[in-house]
Amino acid sequence: MMRGRLLRRLGWPGWRNRSLRAKIGMGLGVAAILPTLVGAAAAVWLVLSGLDQASRHEAVRTARVALNLVLRQAQSMQTEAGQLAEDGVLADLLVSSPNAIENFLATQQERLAGGLIEVADTRGHLVGRRSTFDPWRTRQLSVGEDAEPVHAALAYERRVTLIQATGELAVRACAPVLDETYQLRGAVVVTTPLDTNFADLIKGALAVDVIFHLGDAPAASTFFGPDGRRLSGRSLPPGVASQVLHGGTATDLSEVSGHAYTFAYVPLQDSAGHRVGMLGVATSRDALVTARAQAIRLLGFAAAGAAIFAILFSTGLSRRIGGPLRRLHEAALAVARGDLEHQIPVETGDEVGELAQAFGVMTRALKENQDRLAARIREMMTIHEIGRAVSSVLSLDEVLSKVATSVAGVLQAQTCALLLESPGEGEKRLHVRAAFGSILSKIALSELVAAAGAPLRAEQIELHPELGGMARAAGVTGALLLVPLQLKDRTLGSLAVARLVPFSDGDQRLVDTIADQAATAFENARLYSEVTAFSEALERKVLERTHELVETNRALERALRELRETQTQLIHSERMAGLGLLVAGVAHEINSPAAAIKGSVEALGDGVGRLLACARALRQIELPVDAGLKFYQLLEELKPRFEQASIAAPLAVRRKARELGAQLALAGIHDAEDTARTLVELSVADIAEELIAIGGASGFGALVSYLQEIAYLSRNIAAVKTSIHAVARIVGALKSYSHLDQEQSAMADLHAGLETTLVMLHHELKYGIRVERRYGTLPMVPAFVDELNQVWTNIIHNAVQALSGQGAITIETRHEGDQVVVRISDNGPGVPAHILPRIFDPFFTTKQKGEGTGLGLGIVRRIIEKHGGRIEVESEPGRTVFTVRLPVERPGAAREHVLDRALAGSSA
Amino acid sequence: MLSPVRRFMAALLLAACAGPQGPDKTTLTVGRAADAISLDPARISDVESWEVCEQIFDHLVRYRAGTTEVEPDLATSWDVADEGTSWTFHLRRGVRFHDGTPMNADAVVFSLERQRDPNHPNHEPDFVYWGNNYGNIQSIERVDEYTVHISVDRPYAPFLAYLAMVPVAIVSPTAVKKWGHEFSRHPVGTGPFRFVEWVRGERISLAANPDSWEGRPKISHLVYRTVGGERDRLVAIESGSVDVAYQIAPKDIGYVGLHPDLQVLRTAAHNVAFIAMNTQRAPFDDVRVRRAVNYAINKTLIVKLLYQSLAVPAYGPLPPNMWGYDPALPRYDYDPEHARALLREAGYSKARRPRFYVMSTPRPYVGAPERVGRVIARNLHDVGMDVDLIVSPLARHFDATVRGEHDLCLRGWTGDNGDPDNFLYTLLDRDTLTTRRGSNVAFYRNPEVHGLLMWAQETFDRSEREQLYRKAQHIIARDAPWAPLAHAEVAVVVRADVHGVSVDPSSMVYYRNAWRNP
Q: What is the value of pTM for the model shown?
């Protein structure tokens, strides 16, 4: 209210005074823009909070993986400490020459990567130590004399735990030193701090920043400050530390050195379950923040676009609806002004058009009525005037003269005369009591009329069949109207009007009336009141019509409002659906493989640099041409091994490396042990001799370095391939989701499809699996080629899996009547009988977790059925056969059925 | 019916509010090394089948949680008469089987009679347990709707403990008649969980029994999944795909201890690992030689290093948490000097190397039998006794030791019912030299011990029985037919947010009261 008044004072005309068009336009505009804006804002909020939520979950998951790395490190420390303790050498040294322990430990330093090794004798005294740290830090990390962990180890206990050293967390593993007769000789304690080196290690593995907290205080991190100095970490937001140290995990979003991160913390506990610290990981949110800004901008534009569209649309719509209404309104105004000639230019077929038509009809009716009314009123006016004269004028003559004058005036008569019986005379004689114009002397005629008691009207009296003679005799010509003046069956006289123009019925009626009026003042007054009443009724009728018009108008407005609301809802929901699906899905799914590709590609970049260096070194050793060729051929052969190299157990690697190292040293190889270790780690120890043959003892190192770099490159490329495959899968899933992959069915050559599939699966088949083709002659078959390829891939892949690398796969094709038959068999161990009936069930799998979803054969059956075919499986040990039958004719019915189902699915 | 648009909006809102869906809070999943073999309680002997049956079935009596004390189950009380040969059980009223069949005297008689009577229409030839443990039952009779009378051939105190074991679980007669032999795949009992589905080799699914007489369990489903390797089980529980994991490698227990999401539940199990010496043959017919072996063995080292601390040293046949255990038993602590002296005193000759039989197969009571054998051989060598270590697979090992091919052998025992009789009588009584699959592999026959054990079997007063068992244990310790080694602990790894899981000394795990943090 206040606002309204204020606005009005500022010149705003106020809502009530706006035109209907303005109201509809503004209303539609607001109704369309507001939900759009609110919807867009809600969508932005939902998507962004969803992304934040996702980034938090991702961070927590990464933190758990990091925690796993820490714990695996602890476990491997325990193993290493145990091996060191049981090696035998240490036990001997503890007995024979404790002074040599430190020298021995120096040789073992490497296997216990960056830590402190301490050895105690059976009484708990420290007798040897090896440290990679400065004396001060060594002292901080030392287990100390006569310490509890040492005594636990001396009671044969092996233990690993996390400890709070001064200013940092550390892993400590203890183990008893036993000789080969299981005699206790001392104890080994290995302490490795969870410091920046270790944090960097995790960062290297997981590509996230890492923070270790000692209790709730930051102890080590991979962050660097703006000045390039390493940060120990960051202080925690309130509540995070207590949540993690007493409960479970926690996350928060904040910035470090100007970059946005999602932090996730998991607790670290010692072997007694006490929480000693926290491990935090920080995943970068920079991409997310950029994406957020972009999304907001995009949605802002979209909202603006929507608003403009809404304004244009609502303006157009209001014009469409408001225009005819306005014209209707103008017409109504015109009618109100009395302009019944006004035409309504509305030709629309809607309610407004009908209304306009009705309005036109009504206006015309009104106009006719009014015309009639006007004439009537004119008459009435006369009568009224006469009545008024009758009631106001005392002298009858004056009255009569007034009547005569008025009648003459109204009828534009040349002559008007009132003939009355003279009162008081014995004989009924008429005489002129009042007259206008030339006085009629032919009283006889009048008398006749008066006597007859009926009026006489003649167009030309002189031609009247009965009275013509009398008229001609009296010299009367032209139109003549004679009306008797009667009052209660008594004739008082007559009224005569003459003129040139003939009289109408109305004129006669008027004159009748006037006659009556003149006949009596009472009659006159009554007549007057009658006229008044009549005119009032007429007015009421007009009012009613107007009211009806208003009602129709309101109904129309209501219908418009509903239409407007429905349209708004529709626009809103479509927009929401599109936005939500695209943004949330894709962003989340593509993130992980993209990060992996990024990591691998960076590693590839480094690797290429190193490879160049190695290549230079290789050139310097000047290999003979054929040796060089042989080397490259060797590399080619080894490539698959690089890609799938598994990391052997450290112990096995060490043993093997030691053996190979000894051989290489005999062959005169420089750095024999390191080189041997590299070869063993790459699992190519078996080609050492070939390499010596190619490069000789001098070139051996360069060859191995080159080999190593190639191996790293291969692994990285394999990783990139895997990730790209993941991305492709996501995109494929997207495509499939949006039904973009429904290509057309075509006539297909099944052999071509089988061969393509075999090419695709070549990498699985080339080691030890023989493929036997028994192809018959096949006609072309209507098929979805890609889908059939999926079928072959699945079946052949299954066979490969069943064969575990050794055996034969037979593919047999035949044309049988109206079918083609493809039979794929393997000589693997067969499918157990109790599994066989379920093999085509969705989600059924016998593979280990991570090898497959179990959807494979379920999909295979669906595809085959979609083609109108059938798939069967028989199995016994040594022979498993999948038989696929496809119709040669186009499987019309089945295809339509599938289509129907697809349509039904998409509209549900 | 929601319009697609509204459904989409609802889904969007849900997604925004709820975040990724967590695991089902009311289902507990257990990962274990092997699948069950049969779910008919009368025909099983493996722990995997046994534990699932414990969830599905009740017995007349049961062990109080975490102990081996007997308490009422489907029988609310019982009377013993005629010097312990006549037992009358009063049954709980209003209990129904999962299929709606009422649990009454007829059901109890049916459950036991089908095992006892070889002519019973539902008798199966592989009801193995009955003959071994319940052969003393003469008759099972219905007295009235809720009373059952059982008579046994002679007074037998451990009888009640035997009735708490799975083979005599009460089964639904309706279901057994319906399924016949296939009842083992469609078990129906009265227990806290009812059977839902069994995918062989993969999983067994159970659902909470809402009408359990103890009230509905807090979880809605219990799923046993078979997860092959130790490593796979560890990974599965770390990732949360199982909530409880059995048989985690001892070397990984330290790792689990450091993991904030996991907890280790340990219970000393009712078992014992021991070296049995052939007391009927030189040189171990001389008690001094047997004691020397006891002194020579370094149990601390074996427990700490080879059991990775998941055990306690054994000083006699009974585990320390079983009633009847005597902490004051004489101990042979590691003392090689004393061992050497005893051997000298006995005039031990090195002329013949004793044969020391060891199994290669890990057992619940000894996870690394071969390494234990090597350490003990070394210990014995240190005191001047060189042995021939003979390592063979379990079946062969059992065969050889029952036949007495050995001088020394590594054996063990996992208790069935928590009664001391189940250890002392089964493993060291002269009656069991040949019966019970020859479980007395020391061929120990002491008439005094036999007298005490028989007396205890026929005594129903608990403290009197305890006295008798103490006396017997002291005699056994003095005679040293064994060198007891260790009682292994059961370690079950459980997610930190799971509570109320109860690990029994019988190494069964119960989920009646289990729940998960909301």
A: 0.56
